[in-house]
Amino acid sequence: MIRISNKTLIDLEFGTILQQISELCTTDYGKEKALTIIPEPTHERVLFSLHQVNEYKSSSLNDSAIPTHSFDTIDRELKLLSIENSFLEAINLKKISSISTTTNHLLAFFHKFQELYPVLHETSTAVPFTKEIISLIDVVIDRFGEVKDNASAKLQSLRRDINHVQGKLNGSFGRDLSRYLSFGYLDEIKESIVENRRVLAVKAMHRRKVKGAIMGSSKTGSIVYVEPEATLQFSRELATLQFEEREEIIRILKDLTDRLRPFSNLLQQYQEYLSDMDVIAAKTKHAYKLKGILPTITQERELHLRDAYHPLLYLTNTQKGEKTHPQTISLEQNNRIIVISGPNAGGKSITLKTIGLLQVMLQSGMLIPVHEYSRVCLFDKILTDIGDNQSIENHLSTYSYRLKNMNQFLKKCNNRTLFLIDEFGTGSDPELGGAMAEAFLEVFYERESFGIITTHYANLKMLANELPHISNANMMFDSRTLEPLFKLHLGEAGSSFTFEVAQKNGIPYSLINKAKKKVARGKIRFDKSIADLQKERSKLQKTTDALKSKESKAEDEKDRLEKINQKVQLKLESYQELYDSNQRLIYLGQKVNDISERYFNNKRKKELIGEFLKMVEIENSKRKKQTLKERKVEKAKEERVKKEIEKKVEVIRVKKKEEKKKEEIIEKQKPKVVLKIGDRVRMLDGKAVGSIDTIEKGKAIVNYGIFTTNVSIDQLELVQRKK
């Protein structure tokens, strides 16, 4: 049974992840449900939940996309269904019909594509499929959410009468409107609506001339609204019919509501199912934002996270356009605990939180931002002690609170536990606190728990070096600038760089020396050795990176040469085909020439035709017989190849022109060489070399031995200076 405390979820900021997922839900019910997500209680439930999200994510790669599952909450409708003699209005019934239709579409979809979505199909099998709810509502309610005319014979008759009376009322009103308008009794607006009745807009001075009931007046009193006497009778008759219509509608809706009451539990199940699908879809959207995947879930006790990103930090940095540094970390049976040391602000706490938050997310059915080759096991308990946990309410110091927390660790730690402790042992005297921390660590080690701790204590670093299944690690720093690189290096303790950082920040060297004298020499040597090792490793890392860069360039060059080789090979093949084709044509030409010569000598037509037919049959026997369709395909292929060749030739031509232009620009940008008498030169577009005899007014006489020529200096280039 998996039990992860609320304190752990708070320490790892799991609530922020839930808030992000909630915002991605499309329904209010889904948003509320997303905020209540907790780690699954069993290993089976974890795997089931993860595969739900992974299958939903894979739907984007399939041709069969999952149908929409958005819905309006029907809590109010379900409450009314639970009250005897209550009834649902048409709009409420339309919501129930909509949620039933949406659910049925999903159930039918997952039944049809159960091979593609086996886990989502299994999720759907618990929900009954029925069209009865939709059928009952469709008989009464139309697609606009109104009660249909034919919902009952009486309603149909009443609406027919209403339309008839409404027609009479409109006709009578129209006649009075035209009559009084012609008398000039009406205002410019002519008519209006008061208490849902059509009235004439009569000028106040003429109100006694228009017979009818006064229904009101304008704010200024210049207009009086009168319902004509002729329409009063029709209005009363219409009101009576509308009252009877409403009574009949209520009777129909009550009857329909009574028929739907037995489906209350099923409708609640529909709402739960669709909101679950909404949460799964939101988890999928969140995974897309994080580039999250489902790593290999292993039964072995191992945790190997490769290129793992802290989810909250990754999203924040992505919005800012900044880089996030991933971490790679491994825990297994032979390396159960890692002790991370090194100076502050190097990323130790973030590394700790990354491991914890990713593990909690995974065990809550969420995909995580790691490399696809990552391997993860599931833990029954995840215990954390992160940050300053001073308790003001209970009047506990930081150290007292941490001791109380460690006591809980001792009670719960076993071989199915992952513990994460930041700044292990702090809050007390360094010597005594370090000793207590060492004792706790030995207990965790004996119980075969998995864990990661961060510390500055040298005794914990030494313990990690001595015990076989604990390893040291440190956050890498640039040896020259002491800037953090945010990369975890396993197998080596980290120096706190206390004195180096102090020196970098301008603390006087005399004060640093004074501080060094107050510390045991052995401890300084130990810390200095670690610092030196880190610096050496940093240099090695730079060398390794340089070698990798060279290796990458060599690979690129190899790929480039292979591509050139392929192109050359293709050209050779095409030249061979062209050669073979030309040889065949030459042979046919010679054959035709021989036949023509024989006919020229003997004039035997029959023999000529026979020879030609024989030659044609020989050539046709070499050809592959093709259908009309195959010939079209072959022709289209030839045309396509021809176009591709033309395109490539055009690209090469354009490229050569661009290169030539660049060369010309470079040539122009070159500083001009000042030519002198005796220099050996040649024309820019020539090959013959001569020597300059004289230079005058931008022109030079060049002696080529046999002849001389007068040339502009701009047209000459230097070959050799005069010795």
Short précis:
This protein is of the alpha/beta class and 723 residues long.
Task: Provide tags for this entry.
723 residues; alpha/beta; five-stranded antiparallel sheet; 55% helix; 15% strand
Can you walk through the features of this model?
This protein has 723 residues and is of the alpha/beta class. It is built from 21 helices and 19 strands. The strands form four sheets. Strands 10-11-12-8-13-14 form a six-stranded mixed β-sheet, sandwiched between helices. A five-stranded antiparallel β-sheet has the order 18-17-16-15-19, with no helix packed on it. Strand 16 (689-696) and strand 17 form a beta hairpin. Helix 2 crosses helix 11 (264-290) and helix 6 packs across helix 11. The longest helix has 82 residues, at 521-602. It is extended and about 130 Å long. Residues 389-395 have low confidence and may be disordered.
Structural class: alpha/beta
Q: What do the pLDDT scores average to? A: 83
**What fraction strand?**
5-15%
| Fraction of residues in helix | 55-70%
Outline the secondary-structure elements.
Layout: H1 6-11, H2 14-24, H3 28-34, H4 43-58, H5 75-81, H6 90-112, H7 118-125, H8 132-140, H9 153-183, E1 186-194, E2 197-203, E3 212-217, E4 223-228, H10 229-260, H11 264-290, E5 296-297, E6 302-308, H12 311-320, E7 327-332, E8 337-341, H13 348-362, E9 375-376, E10 381-385, H14 398-412, E11 417-421, H15 430-446, E12 450-454, H16 458-466, E13 470-477, E14 484-490, H17 498-504, H18 509-517, H19 521-602, H20 605-622, H21 628-669, E15 680-683, E16 689-696, E17 699-703, E18 708-712, E19 716-720
Parallel strand pairs: 5-9, 8-12, 8-13, 10-11, 11-12
Antiparallel strand pairs: 1-2, 2-4, 3-4, 6-7, 6-9, 13-14, 15-16, 15-19, 16-17, 17-18
Helix pairs in contact: 2-3, 2-11, 3-11, 4-7, 4-11, 6-7, 6-8, 6-11, 8-10, 9-10, 15-16, 19-20
